[in-house]
Write a structure and sequence with these properties.
- By secondary structure, the protein is mainly alpha-helical.
- About 65% of the residues lie in helices and about 0% in strands.
- Helix 8 packs antiparallel against helix 9 and helix 9 runs antiparallel to helix 13.
- The protein is globular.
Length: about 300
Amino acid sequence: MGALFFFLVVLAVAYLVAIKLFSSKARTTQPSASAAMPPAAPELSPRLSHQQDSAADKPRQSDESIKQIQEWVSEAVKCKGEKDYEKALKYLDKAYREAAMYEIISNHLSHYTRLPAYLQLAKKNDEGWGQLNLLANGILPHRGPNPTELAIDIDWRIEVSDKTRLFLEREKKFEQALWERCTKNMLSTARAMRKHMEASEAVKNEDWKNYDSNRYFSEELKEGLKKNALWSLEHAEKVMQQHTIEALKEDLWKTAKKAKFEQERVGGLAAEVFATAMSTKSKLHALAEVPDFMVRTRAMIFTEK
C-alpha cells in the first residue's frame, strides 16, 4: 500500500518536472487564473513543519547553529545505537527545528532522510511512509507553503529512492524493494552518463584555454585547470563502470535474490534500466521518465512469473 502511494507521489513529481522542462516555452503565454494559483499546502505532520516563511526570507546560518544541529544529530545516532528510538526522534526533532529557521544547506539534507528509518525502528511505519512521500515530493524539508526545488533535484530523488528501497526491505516487501532499486539505478545511471558526457566535452573542447576571456590566467593556472578537467573525466569513466549492464545486474541481484527471482529476469531488468537511462538527454528528462519507467518495470516484476 505504501509503495502504491509512493508511485502516485512520483506522478506528482513528474508533473513538476514537466513544468520545469517546458516553462521557457510558455513564458509568452498568459496563464489562466487556475494555473496561476499555487497548490494548497498539505496538512503536514508536526515533524519538520515548524516554519512557514519562504526560504528567501531565511537568514544565513551561523557556524554555532550548524555545530548545534550536528551535535543533536550525533545524539540521535547514539540513541539509535542504544535502541532508544523515541529519544533519537526527539533529538532529530530538535535539529530540524533549528535548521528550519534557515535556508536549506545541501550537506544537511542527509539528516532529513534519517527520519523515516528512525520512525520505522520505533514501530511507526505509517508515519515513516508519510515522511518518505513528503520528502520525495519536495514538501519536506519544509521552508514555506510550497514544495521546494528538491522535487526536481536528481541527487535528492536518488537518495530518497534508496531510503525507500531500504524501508521496503525492512518490511520484507522484496518485490516492491526491487522495483524501487530499479528506479534508483536508472536515475543514478542517467546522472553518471550526464557527468561523463560533460567531462568529455570539457576535455574535447579544452575548456581550460578559455576559462574566462575577460581575465588573465597564467599558464600555471591553466595547467591546473587542465589537470582538474582530466581528473574529472577519469573519475567519470570509473563511475560509468559501475553502471554497465553487468554492474547493474549485480546490484539488482542484491534485492532480487531476496525476492527469489531468476537471474534471467534480473538481466532483463538491468537492460531496461540501462536503456532508459541512456535514452535521457538531461537530468530533468531522467526524472520525467520515472513514471513510464516504473510502469514498465512494474509489469516485469509483478506480473511475469
